[in-house]
Amino acid sequence: MTYRPGQNGAGRSVLLAGWLFADLLLLLFVIALGSLPKEERPDPPGPSPTPSGTASPSPSDRVAEQGLVLKPCSFTVKTGSAASVRGQFTEQLRSADVDGRTAGFVLSFGTAPEPGPGQAAAERVNSVITKEMPRFRNAPKRGYWKGGPSGNVRIDVFFLATPDGDTEFPKGCRSSDD
Fold first, then answer.
1. How far apart are CA 64 and CA 67, in angstroms?
2. Burial state string for 143-156 with b = 16 or more CB within 10 A and e = fewer than 16
3. pLDDT in tens, 99-131
């Protein structure tokens, strides 16, 4: 159908609606394909790149991607000097029997009557953890405010799975969800 000046725009609207529907369908297809877990995604077409003279590794030889424990271990420290915060946190990690675990990501909640000081306290604690504790250095950290009297920071740590792939909640931990 061609558009001629002077005709009503109903025919043109139908054509534009059809293209809009086709574009939306393509977008939904791309989103669905991108949301598939890695194991279910089809391999890219063509030969897989392998160095000459070597066989591709078997599935059992491939390194597994490291999982995340989905429930956080919660710790509470009193604000103060960096050494004090580090000492409190290290002792709590040791008593929860997770001092050898690597953090996947960390959420800290500084308590204060106002948001500014609470979030600042949480960010200071995150800074201490980042600089002084190698197993927390690469974990993304976020500082938040929690209403209440000043002086405490709750640290929720989501640990990475153990090297053998165990993603169970560490037995010595307590969670703020409990």
1. 9
2. bbbbeeeeebbbbb
3. 788 999 999 999 999 999 999 999 999 999 888
